[in-house]
Amino acid sequence: MSKNINTQIKLSRIEVRSLRLRAYIGFENWEREKLQDLVLSYSFTYDVGAAVENDDVQFAVNYKALTKQIIQLVDNQSFDLIEALADLIYRTIENFNPKIQHVEVTVEKPHALRFADNVMVHIDSRERYKTALIAMGSNIDAETHMQMALIQLQALGIITQRSEFITTKPLKFEDQPDFLNGAIELKTKLSFLELEFKLKEVEAIMGRVRSDNKNAPRVIDLDVLAFNGRIDDAEDFLDLPFLKEFVEKLNPDLLST
């Protein structure tokens, strides 16, 4: 039976609290082979719409498998700093599944200081910049609208790089003017989903009108090409080869992962 994956966005927060492990923290503890108690907690948000609608684990983020991976990384391993350990766990969660957003990690080291219950490190993804590549396109008063879009995008973060604007022929619906295309690298504190919403908002503000013809002329088109080291839509690389050129210019490492 085919599954229905067309569903409304339903964000939910998954939390794993007080995971108790032991590790060697600090060089002196490696030398003395002294394991220390650690208490780890983490949480993340993801769109559970498809998982809820289908009541099927294949649409969910497998937090059990994620927790096992964290245990293998930490338990009985050696780290100089709990800051480094917390960052390792954070990156592991962030890279576990592209659906994951709003990651929080807390690592507690009980009785690490005299007169204190514990020392802890807390990481919140909303306080960290993410790297996004955003593709831009227009074929209605294109030069003006591309410059306007750049101004709007500056409000979403910090533009650290941009490609040259190039003229491309329309590929899927040819009876329309040529496009002006480009891309930027943006450092942003927005999650992937928040960034997508903001781009649609910018398109609406600039007057984009959507019709049944998805390839019709447009005032502006803004799409997340890559986010935090992941290509968002590999099919576009096949259909729109100039996007690969933008990635090669702005972040060539993406093409080798």
Task: Describe this entry's structure for a reader.
This protein has 257 residues and is an alpha+beta fold. The chain folds into two domains: 11-127, 2-Layer Sandwich (GTP Cyclohydrolase I, domain 2); 130-256, 7,8-Dihydro-6-hydroxymethylpterin-pyrophosphokinase HPPK (Alpha-Beta Plaits, 2-Layer Sandwich), CATH 3.30.70. The chain has helices spanning 27-32, 49-54, 63-74, 82-96, 142-154, 192-205, 234-239, 242-250; strands spanning 11-25, 36-47, 78-79, 101-110, 118-124, 130-138, 158-162, 166-168, 179-188, 221-227, 230-231. The strands form two sheets. Strands 6, 7, 8, 9, 10 and 11 form a six-stranded antiparallel β-sheet that branches. A hairpin with a 7-residue loop joins strand 4 (101-110) and strand 5. Helix 3 (63-74) packs antiparallel against helix 4.
The SSE string, one letter per element, is EHEHHEHEEEHEEEHEEHH
SS content category: alpha+beta
| Percentage of residues in helical conformation | 25-40%
In terms of DSSP E residues, the strand content is: 25-35%
CATH homologous superfamily designation of the largest domain: 7,8-Dihydro-6-hydroxymethylpterin-pyrophosphokinase HPPK
Average pLDDT figure: 89
CATH fold-level topology of the largest domain: Alpha-Beta Plaits
| CATH arch. level architecture of the largest domain | 2-Layer Sandwich
Largest sheet: 6 strands, antiparallel
How many separate domains make up the residues? 2
Weakly predicted, low-confidence segments? 1-7
How does the overall form come out from the CA principal axes?
Answer: elongated
| Cα gyration radius (Å) | 22 Å
- Give the termini distance in whole angstroms: 34 Å
What is the CATH class designation of the largest domain? Alpha Beta
Count the beta strands. 11
